[in-house]
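Margin note: ligand = magnesium ion.
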Amino acid sequence: MALNPVLAGRKLRLLAFGLIILIWCAIGFDLWAISQDSDSASVDYLFLPLGNVAPSWSVQLLILGVVMTILVIEGCRFLLSMRERAGNLLKLHRSVIDHASEAMILTDAAQRILSVNVAFEQITGYAAHEVIGQTPTQLSAGHSGLNFHRNIWDFVAENGFWEGEVWDRRKDGGIYPKLMRISAIRDEAGHASHFVANFADVSDAKAQAERFDYLAHHDQLTNLPNRLALDAHLGNIFDSAMPGINRLALLIIDLDNFKTVNDSLGHHAGDRLLAEIARRLGGEMDRAKRLFRLGGDEFVVVLEQIESNDEVITLLDRLIRSTGPACDIDGHQLRCTLSIGVSVYPEDGQDGPTLIRNADAAMYAAKAAGRNNFQFFAEQMNAAANKRLHLESELWRALAENQLVLHYQPQIDLLSGKVVGVEALVRWCHPQRGMIAPGDFIPVAEESGLILPLGQWVLLAACRQVRDWLDAGIDMGEMAVNISAHQFRQPDFVQSVQQVLAETGIPAERLELEITESSVMHGVDSAIQTLAKLKAMGVRLAIDDFGTGYSSLAYLRRFPLDRLKIDRSFLADVEYDPDAASLVTSIVMLGRSLGLQLVAEGVENFAQAEFLRTLECERVQGFHFYQPASAADVVGLGRTLEYPVQPA
Ligand code: C2E
Ligand code: MG
Ligand code: MG
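Resulting structure:
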């Protein structure tokens, strides 16, 4: 063990003091003796041979002695404090090295370990005494092989420095990655006299980087690789692909009506449905078929090395079949159909973005063809996609330039034949393309957020129409206005209805809001609050397209509703299909048991009207009675029909 430098300093100082005092006593004694025998030249000096020194000199000598002594003492003190400071600095350096988080090894020129720090012991599991005298190569030889490590050290000996990542073995045999730097310390002649290696265990950082990489490239809900991973995958393929030799197909899969599930049953159910569909699609994949989630309800499959489109069609069939059976989500049996667009490399695109864009256009074509089908890309589909984009920008202009108009379709009472209300239906008078039906632009408005100003415009225009009719003494009954889910969920929706009523001054009972099932089934409590406020104002409330969404009976009971509008799809076959007839009968009974009035929409013929009359569902709306028409035309049609209305 080394001597404590502070203690050593003190001892040395004491010794020096003792010696000086001793010498000084001797000099003092001699001087005293001289002063006693100043005349005699033969005084026996006890200690120092000072000779015949005059007394005046003896005083000077005394002063000189004192000064010298002080100088010697101070010199000693200085030297000792320097030593102490150097000792302290050495201690500090050692402590810094031992507190460093990086492991350090000091070797001699032959790469034999001279010392290691605490971090080395912690990282490798070796105690210092176990490694001193060995070479780092002997310790590390486990994972990467002896030669690998030897080469590194030889490189340092030659070039003075090396840095890089190596895998090493701990004392317990565990393998770990370390980031290492080795430097040579050269003597004055330029030869490597020592080597210093420091390294850090980067297993945690590496694991974290891998985790980040995984998160960045995977979707958390389904654990599928995401869009970024798709781009990377396609990039890799195209770097090595040779047109004419490799063909590949890119499928974009979109779930039909997923939004309805999400809106009606909530995001939790939507997420579970997505995860289940992802699981089923994933079951059809292998090394040459990779599944990705693009986001939302969109998936992508990349099918490599195909020889003909038949292989793609076989896969498409399997995907459609695998997702066919109903998924049990929170007790709901949800059936999910797919719309799939396919693009093929190299004919439909030479790079990833083009293939994705074209498969997307094909997917939209599949949707337009009635959903639940697949389409291979064809050039004219791009024109349709461009049209959709164009439509959105045109719709903004339409709103600003008042190109939207309302048509009104009367609802009549079958018993009296009287018009008891009208439904406001928006149309777009396009300057070039003429009248455009809402089905062609409402979905675009919903996607782009335009539905909010559009819906507000419809509400105000419809109520102004009621005001005009009332002022003209015309009674068209209630004015039904369609409200989109997005509009209904706006925090200030109730307020905006109130403002419109105040501005137009019409009685609230004249206004009926048609809300879809999905608007109210998602976020039930806040929907109830909104409905209750509207109800308190006197506004009437109807559920539109009833039966097409996922309504919960328990919730329906809690909503302060006035009416259910039976969706027109249920009426289509009632006159000859007993199942369709019994379905409508059940809906009517259900509505009645909930204490609600019923309206049947889409009545197209006498038989349907008759059927509804026997069910005592008197309020009807449909082409059999009236087509939607402009405000002026609808008034001109007259407000009473002779009933029974015979088939044309
Ligand atoms: P909806 O609210 O269910 O409106 C009834 C639709 O059925 C109207 O189509 C109407 O013209 C049509 N219809 C009426 N009788 C018959 C019939 O006997 N047979 C058939 N096949 N159809 C009939 P339209 O006007 O094309 O509207 C379609 C949908 O567009 C509406 O369905 C509604 O969901 C939406 N919509 C229309 N106007 C607005 C609006 O101002 N705001 C919102 N948010 N949506 C609107
Ligand atoms: Mg409606
Ligand atoms: Mg409807």
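Residues 55-99 form the longest helix (45 residues).
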